[in-house]
Specification:
The chain is α+β, with helices and mostly antiparallel strands. It contains 5 helices and 5 strands; from the N terminus they run ααββαβααββ. It has 2 domains: about 70 residues, no CATH class; about 80 residues, no CATH class. Strands 3-5-4 form a 3-stranded antiparallel β-sheet, covered by helices on one side. Strands 1-2 form a two-stranded antiparallel sheet. α1 runs antiparallel to α2. About 10% of the residues are buried. The N terminus and C terminus are likely disordered.
């Protein structure tokens, strides 16, 4: 028989609100004061409806106690933290397999906020310039005998959204 705790909220009260709940609760007031592109509106709609009745679902029943619960469908949006958590874990595990047994450093290069609008208009140009400047800065520093005195291997990743889904244009560089 299922213990009641298997179907209840965590001890200490209600669970913390998730991003979908925050978007449902505050999305309209946020959009009233901040411009949101059509793409961003679609992302916010997907996150707000993810795992809710809006996307449909099915009922599950416990074999032991008969407890039933609604299980709602996921939005599948690549920006949705609920939908992408498992994919993120798989991606990280695949990257760990590729690591060499050497020291790694995480370095972040960030564009000034004033350039964000320009990156929306000319993303390829700005990102190419940022990657080139980041690479040149790292290689110049690494070649200096007072620092490393050698060459670097560099993996660069472009992050255009922060974890709170606000538009950010940093470059994460691992070497």
């Amino acid at each position: 028989m299922c213990a009641p705790s298997e179907h209840e909220a965590p001890a200490g009260g209600a669970p913390a609100p998730d991003l979908g709940e925050i978007v449902r609760r505050y999305g309209a007031s946020y959009r009233a004061f901040h411009p949101v592109s059509l793409h961003e509106q679609r992302v916010l709609r997907a996150i707000a409806s993810c795992r809710t009745a809006a996307l449909g679902g099915h009922l599950e029943a416990c074999d032991r106690c008969g407890h039933r619960r609604a299980v709602y469908h996921s939005c599948g949006n690549r920006h949705c933290p609920k939908c992408q958590l498992l994919a993120q874990e798989h991606w990280l595990e695949a990257r760990r397999v590729d690591l060499l047994p050497i020291p790694y450093f995480h370095v972040v290069f960030t564009l000034p906020h004033e350039l964000h609008r320009l990156t929306l208009r000319r993303p390829r140009l700005l990102y190419d310039l940022l990657f080139a400047a980041a690479s040149q800065t790292l290689q110049t520093s690494a070649r200096d005998p007072e620092h490393l005195g050698g060459e670097l291997g560099v993996t660069t990743i472009l992050h255009t959204w922060s974890q709170t889904l606000s538009l950010s244009i940093p470059i994460s560089t691992a070497s």
